[in-house]
Amino acid sequence: MDDGVTTEEQAVLRGCILPDGTELQERILKAPGDVIIGEHSRIEYGLSGDEIFIADSCTLQGDITAEGDLRIGNFCEIDGNIIAGTDAFIGEGVVIRGKLTVTGNLDIGDNVTIDKGFEALGEIAVRNPMPVILYIILYVMTMLRIDHEEEIDRFMEELSSYDDRPLILPPRSLLDQSRLVVLMPVQIGSSCRLHGLIHGSQMTVGSKTTVFGSVRGDDSVLVESGAMIHGNVEAEKEVLIEEGVRILGNVEGTRVTMDEDATVEGVIRSSGGLTIRRKKK
Question: What is the largest CA-CA distance in the chain?
């Protein structure tokens, strides 16, 4: 399927990962580590993280703060101020409607617009930096200690087991004031605080995570122990609810399985039946 997403990016950004401790605050998506945004994404929030990589043709409405390096791909539009704690790499045709502040060096492409000026304490070079997607590939290969690019698709699955895994929004993600919608599986870590509808092909909500909204999976939804959903949980196929979960809305799926210690305050609809898992005595 040709939807404008490169083969390399389809291989690397094959899912959405919101790692442990991610917070969607009033005007900013705050990650505990690095942040990767796939191309053609629209984010109506600012970003905060360690190193931040934004692929081509993205739109962000908010400030961006990177503790480390910041890389922004070609033809992105940023409606806010940008701070890079070390170096910044800005691609061709980028529009920044705020101020750009760089503690380290600045590499900047052609036809870049910065409405409120910029400040760089290191060297400034006007050239076309390495494409962000190529840098993301090198980043993933380094993180997973792999030698061949063709191995990325297999090893990318292992990111979910890393304590320092990055926050990843895949290509064509939409995050606005009411929803996060992606076309791929979504893995939400533990102890996160998120707002709005979250919709992916498959959904995993980590333990002790709070969602102030609904969760919807095109295929399945897993809600892990101690999570709290202030809305509905819906899936085309299976919904699995672990112990200590509290859902304040309705639950709907072809098959619903829930622990006896889970609570659903709304209506459970399941055409394939409801299974209650009871603990062995």
Answer: 70
Q: Name the pTM for this structure.
A: 0.87
* Rounded to 5°, angle at Cα 218 from 273 and 40: 170
**What gap in Å lies between CA 106 and CA 11, rounded to an integer?**
29
Three-state SS string over 40-107 comes to CCEECCEEEECCEEECCCCEECCCEEECCCEEECCCCEECCCEEECCCEEECCCCEECCCEEECCCEE
* Residue 121 CB neighbours (<10 A): 11
Of 88-92, 156-160, 216-220, the range with the lowest mean pLDDT is 156-160
Going by their DSSP bridges, the two strands 28-30 and 113-114 should be labelled as unpaired
Q: What is the C-alpha separation between 176 and 105, in angstroms, rounded? A: 32
DSSP state letter for 165: P
Q: What amino acid occupies position 242?
A: E
The count of other CB atoms within 10 Å of the CB of residue 253 is: 24
Measured between alpha carbons, how far is 122 from 191 in angstroms, rounded to an integer? 38
| Cα–Cα separations (whole angstroms), residue 253 to 39, 112, 236 | 32, 48, 6
Tell me the residue type at 107: D
Identity of the residue numbered 237: K
Residue recorded with tokens 């897993």: 222
Contacts of 142 (CB under 8 A, 6+ apart): none
Q: What is the pLDDT of residues 19-43, one digit of tens each?
A: 999 999 889 999 999 999 999 999 9
User: Which residues partner with 59 through β-bridges?
Assistant: 42, 77
Q: How many CA atoms lie within 13 A of 125 on its CB side?
A: 12
